[in-house]
Amino acid sequence: MTSHQSIALALRARLDELTRRVDDLEAELRQPLDADFEEQAADLQDDEPLAALEDAGRGEIQRIRMALARIDDGSYGTCVTCGEGIAPARLAAVPTAVQCAGCAGATKSKRT
Ligand SMILES: [Zn+2]
User: Fold this and answer.
1) What is the Cα–Cα distance from 61 to 65, expressed in whole angstroms?
2) How many angstroms does the Cα of residue 92 sit away from the middle of ligand 1?
3) Domain ranges, ordered by start, for the chain
4) Does the model's pTM come out above 0.85?
5) CA 110 to ligand 1 center in whole angstroms
6) Model pLDDT for residues 9-60, shown as the tens digit of each residue
7) In the chain, fewer beta carbons within 10 Å around the N or the C end?
8) Cα 80 to averaged position of ligand 1 atoms, centre (Å)
9) If 0-12 CB within 10 Å is exposed, 13-18 middle and 19+ buried, where does residue 44 land?
């Protein structure tokens, strides 16, 4: 098994777990509101961190799907910005990375 295949296995396991978690959160968020108004207000407040978690989960699911597609088409481990290889240590730390450390750092400093 190549290292990319073992990363793919780990990513698929993570994807399954995340999908379940986001489904749970979604079910929780869709629960009908309580009739009692105060309870409703409390529910709405409670839902905010849940919605944020759901968003974060969905974002990670997207990144994992992209990484898996890149493993499939053979472009995994290549920086999308400069085309250089992404360091294996970086992929081990951030398996969904699409940029090398240099480009990711440049993007980050441009954003801030
Ligand atoms: Zn790069």
Assistant:
1) 6
2) 16
3) 1-76, 79-112
4) no
5) 14
6) 999 999 999 999 999 999 988 887 666 767 667 776 777 888 899 999 999 9
7) C
8) 7
9) exposed
